Amino acid sequence: MDDPRIGIGYDLHRLVPGRPLILGGVTIPYERGLLGHSDADAVLHALCDALLGALGAGDIGELYPDTDPAWRGADSARFVRDVMERVRAAGRRVVNADVVIHAQVPRLGPHKAAVRARVAELLDVAPNDVGVKATTNEGLDAIGRGEAIGCWAAVLLGPARTRGA
Questions:
Q1: What tens digit of pLDDT does each residue of 27-39 get?
Q2: Could you tell me the CA-to-CA distances from 152 to 24, 72, 127, 132, 134 in Å, in that order?
Q3: Which residues contact 3 (CB under 8 A, 6 or more apart)?
């Protein structure tokens, strides 16, 4: 139970007109957004999969299937809050998280601090326990052509803190 647990997650969504662009729970001003059954927040989806992986508890598609109308248009923060309840129920806590967002467009540098703060809030950690990086794909593949945005996430879970610790 005291052993640390590591999880990784990945998500990718197509950019389309007519949808807001939401990454890490933050709305990013852009003319296109991510296509998906929920709000298609690739950052929060990758984080959920990383958390679930560390718990050995399946993946986001199993828990919140896109065939379930209950999740249509859902705020992905709901998924993170639910997964965090599973983390706490397992006697665990997030030690730190690291995120790499792959996006050719838009430029995400000005938004990284807001994404970091929101992710830290959702994971119940300090902002300095969350890394957020943004990179392009140098014009290669669907991401590099500006057709999609992807995200890798890694988390480290440790035992829950006892009172006074």
A1: 999 999 999 999 9
A2: 12, 23, 18, 10, 10
A3: none
